[in-house]
Design goal:
The chain is globular, with a radius of gyration of 19 Å. Strand 2 and strand 3 form a beta hairpin. It is about 35% helix and about 25% strand. It starts with a strand and ends in an 8-residue tail after the last strand. The strands form 3 sheets. Strands 1, 4, 5, 6, 7, 8, 9 and 14 form an 8-stranded mixed beta sheet that branches. The relative contact order is 0.19. By secondary structure, it is an alpha+beta fold. It is built from 8 helices and 14 strands. Bound molecules: adenosine-5'-diphosphate (ADP), ligand DP6 and cobalt (II) ion (CO). Adenosine-5'-diphosphate binds next to helix 1, strand 7 and helix 2.
């Protein structure tokens, strides 16, 4: 056995958000969430386990990472080592084809890719559902990146049944225009931001209640392939999540002036008869959910305010997969 594997995982954007943990050790969420996996943004990760390694090492985009980042990886790999009953240390090399920590869900593709690679490298043969429970303990949003299309993360009752469920392959006329307002790393990580919100925002219980209804409604919209309803629920859910942060102590927001510019552009397009809806994660970047066939038109409208390099059109992406020899850049 080679003990080495290369895996690609795509990021996903939540249409019904995960924003808050009921258990921080096991990464159990307060509510179920639902996302769309994205074709254009992904992470490629290589992991190799070897008896001769004295410690784990971690390279991101070609740069050796410091103690803090490496510790995070070690803790995550421990889950796989426990399962395999091995003490072998590992070397991890990862390339993000997505800005790191900028609110474009790098942690989702990162931990789904690492989970997939560790599973293969150690020959664990975990099925996708079980693998998603491992990915979850690296980053909650990574739970959903195991699968492609529309994916639900069922909040479950315990660590074993809080996993991802594929809902629909999204192979209808669906796309997204990403407005990368600011690709710099954010000041408040998702982890810290959601913790502060759960602990201090009086709006938080209302958010959880309404997210429970939203997820039922969006699943009905997906089953009916009702794009307008899908978009309306997505936009409303995202706005509610950002509202909870304004109620936190101290209050915070990921929005920047250009976020509003992008939101207003989408609203104007809608008035002109082009259905498109916005959502934002823990960052200033705006994602415009649209019909893939109209993505180019939407991009043209956004080009009045943003430069070409800030606009990314993507279709729905697929689940994790092993990289072919030719694709192995890392
Ligand atoms: P994002 O919006 O990008 O998901 P988060 O704050 O949720 O931002 O997560 C960013 C963190 O995820 C990084 O600080 C790093 O710890 C981790 N991360 C990002 N990319 C990778 C990668 N390729 N491999 C391992 N960990 C990664
Ligand atoms: C706003 O999964 O990045 O993007 O579980 O602490 O690693 P941790 O947080 P993370 O949070 C994602 C928050 C979100 C919404 C979502 O993706 O559902
Ligand atoms: Co994240």
């Amino acid at each position: 056995m080679s003990n080495q594997a290369y895996v690609r995982a795509h990021t996903n954007i939540a249409l019904i958000k995960y924003w808050g943990k009921r258990d921080e050790i096991d990464f159990l969420p307060m509510n179920s969430s639902l996302s769309m996996t994205l074709d254009k943004l992904y992470t490629d990760t290589m992991v190799v386990f070897d008896d001769s390694f004295a410690q784990d090492s971690f390279y991101l985009n070609g740069e050796k990472q410091g103690e803090k980042e490496t510790k995070k990886i070690s803790k995550f790999l421990d889950l796989f080592r426990e399962e395999k009953k091995t003490a072998m240390r590992a070397r991890v090399e990862s390339i993000n084809h997505v800005p790191t920590a900028a609110g474009l869900a790098s942690s989702a593709s990162a931990f789904a890719a690492l989970a997939g690679a560790a599973n293969l490298a150690l020959g664990l043969d975990l099925d996708p559902q079980r693998l998603s429970t491992f990915a979850r303990r690296g980053s909650g949003s990574a739970t959903r990146s195991i699968y492609g299309g529309f994916v639900e993360w069922d909040m479950g009752t315990c660590s074993d049944d809080s996993f991802a469920v594929p809902v629909d392959d999204a192979s209808w006329d669906i796309g997204m225009v990403i407005v990368a307002v600011n690709q710099k790393a954010k000041e408040v990580s998702s982890r810290i931001g959601m913790k502060r919100t759960v602990e201090t925002s009086p709006f938080y219980p209302a958010w959880v209640e309404s997210a429970k209804k939203d997820i039922q409604d969006i699943k009905a919209a997906i089953a009916a392939k009702d794009f307008i309803r899908l978009g309306e629920i997505t936009e409303a859910n995202g706005m509610k999540m950002h509202g909870t942060m304004l109620g936190a102590e101290p209050p915070f927001s990921y929005w920047e002036p250009d976020s509003i510019v992008a939101i207003k552009t989408a609203q104007t397009l809608r008035k002109q008869g082009i259905p498109c809806y916005v959502t934002m994660d823990a960052g200033p970047n705006v994602k415009v959910l649209c019909r893939l066939s109209q993505a180019e038109t939407i991009k043209q409208a956004l080009l009045e305010h943003f430069t070409e390099d800030k606009l990314i059109i993507t279709k729905p992406g697929k689940g994790i997969r092993e990289l072919t020899a030719a694709e192995r850049a890392v």
